[in-house]
Amino acid sequence: MATILDKMDLQSDTLKLHDANDPKCVVGGLKKYKKVKSQAELESKAQGYFFDSETKTLYVKTLAKSHSKRVIH
Known about the structure:
Elements: H1 4-8, E1 10-17, E2 26-28, E3 31-33, H2 39-44, E4 48-52, E5 57-65
């Protein structure tokens, strides 16, 4: 039996933003992303975000159906 995720054909992309500030929250597609504690934890999740305070880099992992469009502002 296939899971819901298998049926939806989901994929994810990770955005890497340099010289960023630690955001209070990250929202995409009207959904608030969960903050994780490490880049490794982010890699294991379907979506979320991680801020690396040493390098001032924000990583945002987005989840979308493979046939959907993603708009980044």
